[in-house]
Amino acid sequence: MDVLVNHTMLAAENFDIKKVAIAGGVACNGGLRAAMEAACRERGYAFYMPTPILCTDNAAMIGAAGYYDFVRGVRHGLDLNAVPGLKLG
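The chain above was modelled as a monomer; its predicted structure follows.
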């Protein structure tokens, strides 16, 4: 956790960033949330974090969707590209 906080603060300093946000599954970690908030407060940075209910880890959902496609025989070549609005189910 210290590495994430320290590297984030270093990056913010190096790039003259005054706003820091965390998101995704890692943002549900209470210790990280508290440490990041304290580090930002010390430096006068604005800190943003979503409510924990919105901090889900989408990797599990994507893995499950891929598994069920695989079981159904769905296969794609190496030319497959991302489809941001793809509907699952």
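Helices lie at 2-14, 30-43, 58-71.
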